[in-house]
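Take a specimen:
=====
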Amino acid sequence: MRYFFWAIFIALLALLPEMGLPRSWLLYIFLFFIYLAMASMWNLLCGYCGLISLCQPAFIGLAGYALVVTTWNSFSIFWGILLGCIVSALFAGLISIPTFRLRGIYFAIGTLVVPEAMRVIFFLWRPVGGTIHGKGAGYMIKGLSDFPMAGIYWLALSIGVISVIIKRFILTSKMGLGLSAIRDNEDTASSSGVNVYMLKLITFVISAVVTAVAGAIFFMYQGYIEPTGAFSMNWTMILMLATVIGGIGIEKGPIIGTAIIVFLHFELARYGGVSLLIQGILLIIIMLLMPGGIMGYVQETKMYAYISGLVRSEKS
């Protein structure tokens, strides 16, 4: 019955573009699915594997430029999404060689420089010829005129749902147990027979591929790409906020956190660059008042109420 309920709910979400809803509403839901896919993968990396990866914008930008290369060479958009998946997976495997030698905050710092390096590279390198739009090596994505907006919405819905299913499948498998062991103590996990490097690599690549697909769909909606926005640390801030606010290491955390982030995204848009400062302050407040996030606080409250009820029953 639970799966049936979720199937009906997803089907209703898929019908929203055909119901004549305002375009702004569809944009809210579209961004929710995009951010949800990215936040779910970052929660899988950081919350369950202990990898504080700050290089997710690199996969998003690579997926966007893969769309440019394919569409400018008269291939379909779907080939561009596939190319973005392949390039992101290969790139994740490549950067894992040096970064996996680092742990904790050192791993985070090592991955932090990757998006910035990619931004500089794409400022200097023109992937395809033609007219440059916007800042740096900015390009319009071709072939979008034949692609309906409802189709882009359905792609976003699909990747959002798929990201949740993938995370659920991993966490309920032996791989999920191995990831939890790595997060708790990598040395102990290795001595217990867990293939630490392989599990981290598989998780890192899966996260890169799903994040790349979500990024490609976002740029399909936007219609163009340029280095500053593609490899921006704003993406990292969105992922961290959605995960930490909802509850890091909690399966339903990114869902709650993403809904709040989408709301803040539109409410704080009027403040321009100050919005990042406001989001940073919000992140600090959440970490101080609710270290486990909203879902963590809810779980703690339920557990406290349950224990209190047992104590009262014991006394009576």
